[in-house]
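Thread: quick sanity check before group meeting

JM: Hey all, I'm pulling together slides for Thursday and realized we never actually wrote out the predicted structure for the chain we discussed last week. Dropping the sequence here so it's in one place. If anyone has concerns about the input, flag it before I start.
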Amino acid sequence: MKLLRYLTLLLFLVTTAAQAQTVTITGRATDQKTNEPLAGVTILLRGTNLGASTGADGTFSLKTDRQPPLVLVASFVGFARQEITVTDPTQPLTIALAEDAVTLTEDVVVSASRVPEDIRKAAVTVEKLGARQFANSPAANPFDALQNLKGVDLLTQSLTFKSVNVRGFGANNNNRFVQLTDGMDNRSPGLGFGFGSVAGVSDLDIESIELIPGAASALYGPDALQGLMLTTSKNPFVYQGLSAQVKVGMNNVGKTNFGPKGYSDLAIRYAKTFGRFAFKVNFQRLSGTDFIADNYDDRSHRDRAAFLVDQPNRTVSLGYVPNNNPATNLQYDGVNIYGDDFNNGGAFDYTATNTTNAALVGKRVTRTGYTELDLLANQGKIFSNRANVSLHYKLTDKIEASVGWYYGGGNFIRTAGFREYFPDYQRNQFRAEVKGEDFFVRAYSTSQTAEGYNLGNLARRLLQIGKPTATWASDFAKAYTGDILAAKQAADAGIFLPGSADYTRYRDELINTPNNVAIPSAATVANAKGLNGVRLLDNSSMYHAEGMYNFRKLLPKAVELITGASFRHYSMLTQGTIFPTKKDGSEFAFNEYGWYLQGSLNLKLGLNATLKPTAAVRYDKNEFFKGGFTPRVSGVLSVGPHNFRASWQSAFRNPSPNQLLSDGKTGEVGGSQAALEAANLIANPAYTPASVAAYQKSGNATDLVKYTPDPAAFTTEKIKTWEVGYKTLIKNRLYVDAFLYRSIYTDFIAAQNYLQPTSGNVADLKNASTTTSYQVNFNNTNEIFVNGWGLGLEYGLGRGFTVSGNYARQVGLITRRDNFGVIQNDAFGNPIVERRMSDLDVAFRGRNFFISPENRYNVSLANPRLTNRLGANITYRWTDQMWVEQGTTAGDILLPSWSTVDAQISYKLPALKTQAKLGATNLLNQYYAQGYGLARIGGLYYLSLTFDELFR
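JM (edit): ok, ran it. Output follows.
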């Protein structure tokens, strides 16, 4: 925090340095073909962060203290980048830009090596989305445009919250992938995953998004195990004036008795310069109705009887056939109905000792639960607010100081092992930075108010207050004569109806009372005795400082050496609702620090060939774990337009705070001693679901397989990755990007299900109503491999048309070992050595959580300039089927493949400095699921008007 204050003071206290003679460069940018003026062309002074953009008449003006000769770089959507040498600044320039055949000609990226470089010569696979891609994309916002990149899977949790996944192990909350916004980590300090656009910058303020699919830990720390996304906002010195966007649309089309629903998205940005000083202000507000999770099919889950293996025929298949009719299914458990869980407190097992109804002996019956809309009680309404204010000051032409405030807030649902709703999430980030051509020093803080509740816990406690499960089961048995619905209706007498006064009263008590505090009615209502609330709090904070220096000016021209270091402090604040407190009652806090060094050589091998070998190493230390090094070596061979790359990296990942400290109140248990003790898993052991099923049949306690905690062995997750790739741009018309990789994971951190007897007596395990289900994090002993490759192509057809496409394949393999390192066999005695994790005979031995489609591709046809005013794009996306293993209240299922058509058409109104865009994602409104238990995604249709850089 001291560094943050010092940098802030530096910005406001610095006095203006001695001024050199000011040079003013003016000019006009036009379309080479039509000679019409081009508005919005970016003009940058090479070697500095000085810039300007052209107005409606194509003119610009740029002031600098540097003396001629100077080099300007002009760039604009749909046109080739152009460099102009200025020798006489008194003469106005005329810059005629030529139409560009493809989108990526000379794009510069910084994420691959932390220094600017041509994207074609980056040592690792890197993707970039800029103004041209955002304008052409049918996606409703820049973040959603990521789904068109090869190998990227966006899992939609809410309309405003999508999780980025690459190269396997798809997660609704991906803590193996780092998201940076202007260099700031986007993740929740406590929950440990990036929030994407929930708390990102305004859409109007995004200049570019760079994405590295694959390990990036050598430069960005241990959490970038699977990749990195860097979002850069617009600099007010370059992008000035007033911009605004009005967007209206609808979704949930075709939903019976629910849709369609409208939404609106309003954004405004204003930036202004005053000599060396500049500022910008942003605000964006989205409101609408979320895609509702309304899959009421019977839940497919490995704990179902005869779920996978058919031994007589020596085949493995989904032996359990879901029965979606509650009238004929005693164990009906709707996927998005909560409180009716057949395996987590929502069911009752009848025996000869607890019922006189012989028809029910040996049967399990589930309760009647509540839907997601019942529990949310908000009709799916959703909102999102984002704001940003930043102040910038140029100490010199090459050194800029800035301070900024970034705010994000709204409501959303996230899915871990359970569905959780956050009705009013808020996050504030404060950032200060001094940045020059060869260095930066940055400090920022992240603080949040994240208070929500688990929908499953809420449903179970509402049902408990209305009628305890044992009482409900007795009433059901008395009424049951073969008619399931009639018996449930009789047993449900006294259960609170959604919207009723009692339902609202107890729902509000539960969601407003922390999950470690008794609700007010616990003292007066018999069924609420000893019942806690369900509210969880993660109001944690994070403080970060880092710096980097490039020694290139002190070294020979062919040599480049950079070094950097970082320090981070986490301050957990969950008040015992997610993480336990220490023995003295205080909350957990811990530090991380890291240091990196990277060196590279630029070797000329002839007139038309270069070789750039690079080596990097980073050391990181979290106070809970041993420190470790993450080395990377790479090389790029460029021969004419052909660029061949290869890299190897070893990396590790610290468990997220959630994986380390969760105490079981939300269903997840961390791997630390404190977490295991808080969940009482040491004094009251839990058992594997398969062994509990065997025990329920035999009654023999020796069938139980106990989970034995070993917190001392809980350690970091490791990976080694090899990758080769090729990029080229041939005759400014054909762009090719291909890659091939192999990754090996060890000490992989995953959460497995275990069942704990409620009272500590193993006899509790005989009945689902007296059993608690936990997901416990630990390092498994398996060796995990991910092999993949991808290909991206873009071809300029002429007359502004481009056709592009990409394909990505990723296959997860596993060698399964028991706790003693012995290779395990499948159900038929075959060793599981580098076998597909999606094979059912492998999955039957334990969840692997690869959860990723093996194949996916996109194809697009675009022309941003059908005419001087009209542009269009149509994109087809296809994603392969995938084997999903998810959580306690979701399950295990083969999700079918899905495809969708996205399209947009845009029209420019130059006189109004406005562009109109009519677009749709999932144009044909074919609902599909990206994960089990998630909302199914239908069409999203919108019309936007963007007013750009008014009142410059």
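AS: nice. The CA atoms of residues 778 and 889 lie 20 Å apart. The first helix runs from residue 2 to 13.
JM: adding both to the slides.
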